[in-house]
Amino acid sequence: MRALKRFSSMLICMVACLALMPALALAKPSNCETCHAKISPEMVKDFNRGKMSKSLTCEACHGTYHTSEKDVAKAQLPTIATCKQCHPDQANQYMDGKHVLGQVALDAMPRSPHQPKAFMAGQKGCGGCHTLGLVDAKGRETEARKYYKYGMDCQNCHTRHAFSKAEANEPEACQTCHMGFDHPQWEMWSGSKHGTAYLTSRAINPGAKNRAPKCQTCHMPNGNHRVMSAWGFLAVRLPEADAEWMGYRATILKGMGVLDPAGKPTGRLDVVKAGKVARLTKEEFDKERGKYVAICQQCHSPNFVKENFKNADQMGKEADKLFSEAISIVGDLYQQGIIKKKADQPFAYPDLLTFYDVDTKIEQTLYEMFMDHRMKTFQGAFHMNPDYTTWYGYAKMKKDLTEIREMAEDMKKKAGKK
After folding, report:
1. Residue where a domain terminates, one of 163, 187, 208
2. Which residues make beta-bridge pairs with 237?
3. Is 97 exposed, middle or buried, given 0-12, 13-18 or 19+ CB atoms closer than 10 A?
4. CB 278 within 8 A of CB 232
5. How many other CB atoms are there within 10 angstroms of residue 12's CB atom?
6. Are 271 and 348 in contact (CB under 8 A)?
């Protein structure tokens, strides 16, 4: 009798579900979806395959003012403030990190205003990654943000309109920006033992893929969106207890325009502080380094971690030794008047932040030594890729220095200088 009652209940439920199916099938999509299914159908598919479609409508991010093709300009475009309504912790972490300051780095480059607008603000060059920054050095909304309304921020990793957490949690999400000439983190990591272990495990046994670290493991522990590192992009810290290394670093800071040729701070030091591209106290550096040490020790012994960090730091010093000599050689050509400074150049000294906008081959070589080979030397060391450190970094720096020495001698002879 009880079995019969249970069967009857199940039958009633099945009939009720079947009765609802026509209604569900006939349910109409929103007006937004009806229109966009014709003009941007994949956008609609993306949204509906994502979790946000279960609880939000298009209006939650885009507002209610845009209702037809006649008032497209009224559509509100989401910003990090929009995301913050549901994800306050992640938004606050992001706003405290370095990605939010991506535009500050571009503003620090003296030749940035001279680049094509499409290249910067139009996001077809440097701006394609750096305009994920929401504010400039003074905390104001960036010009790029005003020019290119769609912005980047959260959407850069949680790509619209699916906004998938799973997608953003894979290392490929970082690849678009962190690859190539001056920051080939993707190539270094994916070719390292860490990267190959992660990628092969994911292919063979997805459940075991986290047996090796990916980008997010070290740079976003426990999902923290702050994303900071001890050395920063330029591998510069102050003060430096190693007097020899501090001498190399002072020369490099002169080349970056943070110090003038006499060694006195310039206005660019304020930009370094605003952009958080360097650690300016021992306490700040040790705090950030400590976070990475703790992560590494989840898999490795304390002695192994200590030794590897020590050796990676020393590769930074070895790179700076070569680089500081190269800067001094080119600086001497400026001091002797063999290389003439540009009208907008603050000092008769090489300005590394002008990048490729220079007039001599020797400065082009110095620029590549700085942004390409020095970066690969120390970044390869920290990403556990000895081949990158060697053949794409340190060996190339040796080659650069040899060429710079020879070019400097030739330029002096032509100018009749000793």
Report:
1. 163
2. 279
3. middle
4. yes
5. 10
6. no
* Residue 97 and residue 291 in contact, taking contact as beta carbons nearer than 8 Å: no
- Taking 50 as the threshold, does the pLDDT of residue 26 lie above it? no
- Please, how many CA atoms are within 13 Å of residue 356, restricted to the half-sphere of its CB? 7
Answer yes or no: do 128 and 257 share one domain. no
Contacts of residue 159, Cβ cutoff 8 Å, sequence gap at least 6: 167
The answer, yes or no, to whether residue 24 has pLDDT greater than 50, is no
Q: Sign of torsion, CA 212 218 222 227? A: negative
Under the banding of pLDDT at 50, 70 and 90, the label for residue 18 is: very low
Single pTM value for the model: 0.85
Of the residues 131, 163, 195, the one at which a domain ends: 163
Least confident residue range of 91-105, 237-251, 362-376 = 91-105
Q: What is the pLDDT of residues 162-202, one digit of tens each?
A: 999 999 999 999 999 999 998 999 999 999 999 999 999 99
Give the range of the structural domain holding residue 261, as residue numbers without chain letter.
243-281+302-415
CA distances from residue 115 to 107, 126, 350, 352, 357 in whole angstroms, order as listed? 12, 10, 20, 16, 10
The reply to whether 327 falls in a domain is yes
- The dihedral region occupied by 29, where left means phi > 0, alpha psi between -120 and 50, and beta the remainder, is beta
**Average pLDDT estimate for 221-227:** 94
Calpha distance 345→379 (Å, rounded): 30
152 and 262 fall within a common domain: no
62 within a domain of the structure (yes/no): no
> Is 264 within the bounds of a domain?
yes
Structural domain count, the chain: 2
Band (pLDDT 50/70/90 cuts) for residue 234 is confident
Reported as a pLDDT band with limits 50, 70 and 90, residue 213 is very high
